[in-house]
Task: structure prediction
Amino acid sequence: MIKVEGLTKRYARTIAVDNISFEVDKGQIVGFLGPNGAGKTTTMRVLTCFLPPTSGTANVAGFDVLEHPLEVKRRIGYLPETPPLYPEMEVDEYLNFAGKLKGIPTSTIKARIDDVTQKCALGDVRKKLIGKLSKGYRQRVGIAQAIIHNPDVLILDEPTSGLDPKQIIEIRTLLKALAGDHTIILSTHILSEVEHSCERVIIISQGKLAAIDSVANLTNRLRGSEAVALEVESAQGQPAEGDVQMRLEQVPGVSRVVAKTPRDGRLVFEVESLQGRHIRGDLARTVVQAGWNLNELRSVGLSLEEIFLQLTAAEQKDSKQDDQKSGQKKVAEGEKKS
Amino acid sequence: MKNVLLICSKEMRSYFASPIAYAVLGLFAFLFGGLVFYPTVKELSQFAIQAQMQGQPMNLNDQVIRPLLGFASTISLFVLPLITMRLFAEEKRSGTMELLLTSPVRDIEIILGKWIGAMLLYMSMLAMSMLNIMFLFFWGKPDWKPVLVAYLGLILQGGCLLAIGAFISSLTRSQIVAGGATFFVCLILWLLSWFTAFSSSLATQVINYLSIVTHFENFGKGVIDLKDVIFYLSLIFFALFITSRSMESLRWRS
Result:
């Protein structure tokens, strides 16, 4: 339904989206995940023909965004980050305007308004001025506007921001009900959001594609590992930090040991396990067997958000290392040649 | 065409749902009726006596209606920025531009709809001055054809300024900036027509030709000169065209 290939969007100095490719099948709900400023909104704006891509192609329902923008726009419902509302209009009036703008004939517009106001639970406020509505209601009017012409593709930029938990759940149910007939892309920076409503996740970070995976895989990958904070007593530099870190890294099942800044005479580490491994017992045994004093051993509950941040941060680091490696290779090759 | 009408009716609604329409209409009614029409009519009796002493009947068209509509043209220069300042600036600020630009509507339909909406408000403003002029028809027997031509001139001149105002509004997100800049442009145009009145070098002739206000003079006299009509129409076309360019650059610059 949506096919993006090598999409790049460059502003005057910055690259907002860098060579992104992905595909979304019909009827799927896809989460677009990334920290603020990662390029989520820019990608969505390209898909909705609001911005033209600098290079690469984007294809919606078989139409290219540059060549047939009107056909693409007809098939897309879009909710921008700030819902595009006219405060001086009543809800019904606004939906009437938005519907006609999207080409709904006058004969069916009333039925469509009835339908979307019912779906978005706007029945009570239909005759109220939009300017007088609360944030939650405005957001729902925005969603109603996006689905009024029954589009094939629905693109929602942070649809649940600013809503209270009850409203968030309502929106999630609404989205689930809409999936199937509609292909939905929604962006968010809240991971649990994606977990609840999406089938697949596209993670982007700093304009680059970090991961495309199903939600189940991703959460397993992130949830399965364990993080432990560990504190070892150290008097007059004994034991040395490096020794302890090395020993901890040798414990089976450990994926990563990070040394934190030591506090007077105590060495602090954060240890992460591989997926599905329990390492606390082994860690304790290792420290005690080495004859050191184990002050503290505690499981650190990493929130999904933090894990996500680590994931994106780690991938950035990897790419940097790759760059360095390739740089070194080039230097080496250069030396060979000379 | 359907989309143009849709956007035009939405514009009209926004004007009348906000204080802008009432401010524009009220301001114009006050300036035209209170400061121009009333004093002129008060002196009408003196004109009439003078005219009788000279032994020829007074010409209402030349002596009253023409200067009156000349004033209407000047007043509209200063009221027009109020009409155009919000056209695009407000949509850009509130994010509703995103709705318009992601709907299956062509840019030119949006621009035409907005411009026609602004024209309708401007024309209802002119209609208020017609109320005043109507009184003269009760009292005397002015020729109605030159009056009609003068109104055509006012509409064309207003159309130009509204198109220029729309362009300025499409450049910024701030209504104040858009209104201020449009006011400045109108002021310059008004002053230009003053400066050029006292000199006849080639440069001033060029400036004079380019000044929107001077092209109104013939209409004021009741003369439709094709040159003036073409000037106004081509300026409207040009201003709307650069507005569409400016909207497109909105996409590139974001």
